[in-house]
Amino acid sequence: MRHPHPPQPPSPERSAELRRRFAEEARSERPDLATLCLLVGAEADGTLDEAGLDAAQVELDRLAGQLPFRPGTPRAWAVALRDLLGERYGFHGVAADYQRLESSLLHEVLRRRRGLPILLSVVWLEVARRAGAPVYGVALPGHFVVGLGTESGPESGSLEERVLVDPFDGGRVLSGQDAEVLVAGATGAELRASMLEPAAPLDVVSRVLNNIRAWAARRPEQSAVGLWAIDLALLLPAHAARLRYERARLLVQRGEFAAGAGELEAYAEVVGAVDQAVAEEVRGEARAARAMLN
């Protein structure tokens, strides 16, 4: 096991370069999911250099090259992916993976063949896409899966043309009932058609960063990880304004009182246009942070 503790971050210069590339890719016409996820990994792990980034892309290409040529139907694609990735290479997830930061880093998931549902789904998506499969991500509440077939919409015809698979479970092909059980287990809610809509690459990356922030939030000693995850999320073209508030509070928590207070005041300005009461509360937090400087 290489990392009993989270990996060491890159140098400030390397980090600045990675963030520049992440922002550029996120704002490109067709953002590349693998590239974005690998840049997240490089921000987490200072040992992931350019050769390592290239090697991860080559590995995705290699896996795609081992799929049979154009299986045909969505179900045949699903079975081919399950046989290759789930059975032959053993990609899957277990509950303990939720406790590890590596489970959110694509290069580590390719190495360990284990990870969170969303990162295993990224492997399925990228391998299938490279092989020419009609594939898309499906962000079910609490559990990310992969769809094969024509994306949903009025022109797509019957549901028979689409198959859902669960990479966390080794690529098991899901029946409609299985998907309902996954959603009910995660949220207690009913499965709605809108939940089966394809997830855009930037939405997938945003959810990956949310998972990293949640991991760090449960571990106050990992606040630096939470901070870079917020910083990357803020580089995505669409992000919640509240992320700025979260970042400011994290700076205060880390003892960076002046910087945190400044960001709280800036957030209060923005929020004041909508809700004066909340803005006042945030200004109060900023004053409290400044008081810690004395």
TrEMBL record:
Comp. bias (Pro residues): 1-12
Coiled-coil residue windows: none
Pfam families: TPR_9, Transglut_core2
Location of region: Disordered: 1-26
Ranges for domain Protein SirB1 N-terminal: 58-210
Amino acid composition bias (Basic and acidic residues), ranges on this chain: 14-26
Family: Belongs to the UPF0162 family.
Protein name: Tetratricopeptide repeat protein
Organism of origin: Streptomyces tendae
Taxonomic lineage from the root: Bacteria, Bacillati, Actinomycetota, Actinomycetes, Kitasatosporales
